[in-house]
Amino acid sequence: MTRIIAGAAGGSILAGVEGTGTRPTTDRVKEALFSRLETYGILHGAHVLDLYAGSGALGIESVSRGAATVDLVESADRAAAVAQRNADMVNRVLGWTAARVHRSKVQTYLARVAPELTWDLVLIDPPYTADGHEVTAVLGALESKLAEGAVVVVERSTRSPEPQWPDWLERFSDRKYGETRLWFLEPAVPENPSQRLSDD
């Protein structure tokens, strides 16, 4: 059983996706991730993009904790239907449509989204079977989609090699939790190094 950990909808039970086609982020990893994001001050009022959303647990946690909106992108019909149930639940708790589900392949969604739309936080949790080239391609498609000061988080298996990051993105931190590694990235701002987020 998975719950929203904290925030306005904290304690609410999330529907899960049956079968083995999705790999939900563990509560331990989710708690550590959002603790770090809150330390960065990135969540409050943020516009969030959750790619390969599965049940939507990560994106829905973000709006429970104060993000303004989340776009949940998931291509598998069963998982997208579960994400919609969870989005409907958190929207009822919050009293507005904070979570929106897009049933689409990630790169198709990014190619067709309105060019003026940008996000403050992007969560990328592809299947562990997805290779590094796919991750790099998705990151490349985000170049014009990030707001100033945005943060990108990529979740991968510790057995997967570090992805090849596009030149315009810089890794500023990574953390290992059991079999999971989280990579934290931000747009490169070489002329203003003091504005970069700290690794600690």
From TrEMBL:
Keywords: Methyltransferase, Transferase. It comes from the Bacteria. InterPro entries: RNA_MeTrfase_RsmD (IPR004398), SAM-dependent_MTases_sf (IPR029063). One of its GO terms (molecular function) is 16S rRNA (guanine(966)-N(2))-methyltransferase activity. CDD domains: AdoMet_MTases. The keyword Transferase applies. Its EC number is 2.1.1.171. NCBIfam families: 16S rRNA (guanine(966)-N(2))-methyltransferase RsmD (TIGR00095). This is 16S rRNA (Guanine(966)-N(2))-methyltransferase RsmD.
